[in-house]
Design brief:
mainly alpha; 16 helices
Length: 371
């Protein structure tokens, strides 16, 4: 895919073919959120009030974890302004929805809406983009990680999905807190602290065993569900200088009932084209994309995307390729030859030393600065 276009370029061509009402907020989505909130409260009351078998607690924890994740999906939609438009109500409802995932609405909108969506898959400006090979020389941790065999790294990566969202959210807080207006920083701090006050308070009320089933295990389950989607959103796609959603984003497919439970979160390319549109209408957007640019559109079953993630490394090489420095194996990315049904290396590279990488980066930087 050589010629790239911005998301606005695609949106301008799709919009005339969509009903006018798809650009209006859909408050009825809140009924689903209310159902998940009631399920969550009922789960807390059941665990807190009754002495039950650990297996029953485990079943409740699974239900709570799936509810936490679904509330996060709805919170994502709310904070894009597609459910309600009134700013204070949007942030309040978004805060409630994201409460189990301990992410404040102002941080989320700064990190996700204003940065990730604007700079998707830009190697420097997208806070969610994975590192390039050039960054390997600058990070002792990355160099250590990529000395490990790929199979071990893949296993560790999938296990870490249970904590990745929570850890990345904390990292985004430390990254962006100084960029907020000083007058707004106390609010951002309060939004970050209050959820943890709630959950730590629950620990003292329930005790460690019940707290494990009521919050910690559900949080791990919710992280895993959320990150199953997020990890497939862009990590098989290339790094792009132009924010082209058809090049740098992937839509995954799941059973219809899962889409209903998860508020159509699987439609990710569509979301990057129309982030201000309710995901309720993304199937209509998908129809238009596949009609106009079927050769550009990337979609695959979620299970297939996860298998592709397992088999490929997470380090970019020449923007459109992925590389495993442990053996020098190079893999294609989506749109550049990656076949998710038959993943294989396209070549081996003799990798430069750390000193050579640093020297090359210095020359590139000097050229960009006009030295």
């Amino acid at each position: 895919m050589k010629d790239l276009h911005t998301f606005a370029w695609y949106a301008a061509r799709i919009s005339p073919h969509l009903p006018k009402n798809v650009f209006k907020p859909v408050p009825s989505r809140l009924w689903g959120g209310l159902a998940y909130l009631l399920i969550t409260v009922a789960g807390f009351i059941t665990i807190g009030a009754f002495e039950l078998s650990p297996f029953i607690y485990l079943g409740i924890a699974i239900v709570l974890g799936t509810s936490f994740a679904a509330m996060g999906f709805l919170g994502h939609e709310i904070l894009h302004g597609t459910v309600v438009r009134t700013a204070w109500l949007r942030d309040l409802l978004g805060a409630i929805a994201f409460w189990p995932l301990t992410t404040g609405p102002k941080l989320w909108r700064k990190w996700h809406n204003l940065t990730h969506h604007v700079h998707t898959q830009h190697e420097e400006n997208d806070p969610d983009a994975w590192p390039t090979f050039e960054k390997l020389a600058k990070s002792r941790f990355l160099r250590w990680v990529y000395k490990l065999p790929h199979s071990f790294r893949a296993l560790a990566s999938f296990v870490s999905l249970t904590v990745q969202f929570t850890l990345h959210s904390s990292r985004m807080f430390t990254l962006y807190i100084k960029e907020f207006n000083p007058k707004k920083r106390p609010t951002v701090w309060i939004e970050a602290i209050l959820p943890w006050v709630t959950w730590i308070g629950l620990l003292f009320w329930f005790g460690p065993v019940k707290w494990f089933f009521a919050f910690l295990l559900p949080l791990l389950i919710a992280n895993f569900i959320v990150m199953m989607y997020i990890s497939t959103n862009h990590r098989l796609n290339p790094i792009t200088e132009i924010n082209d959603p058809l090049a740098n984003s992937l839509t995954v497919t799941v059973p219809k009932w899962v889409d209903v439970l998860h508020f159509n979160f699987s439609y990710h390319t569509e979301h990057h084209l129309f982030p201000g549109m309710s995901s309720k209408y993304y199937p209509l957007v998908k129809e238009q994309i596949k009609r106009m640019w079927p050769e550009r559109y990337h979609e695959m079953p979620l299970t297939q995307a996860l298998k592709a993630l397992w088999k490929t490394p997470r380090l970019y090489y020449n923007t459109a390729e992925l590389i495993d420095p442990h053996r020098g194996n190079v893999y294609a990315s989506l749109g550049h030859g990656l076949d998710p049904k038959e993943i294989k290396t396209i070549r081996k590279e003799v990798l430069p030393s750390k000193r050579e990488i640093v020297k090359e980066n210095s020359l590139i930087r000097d050229n960009k600065e006009g030295v």
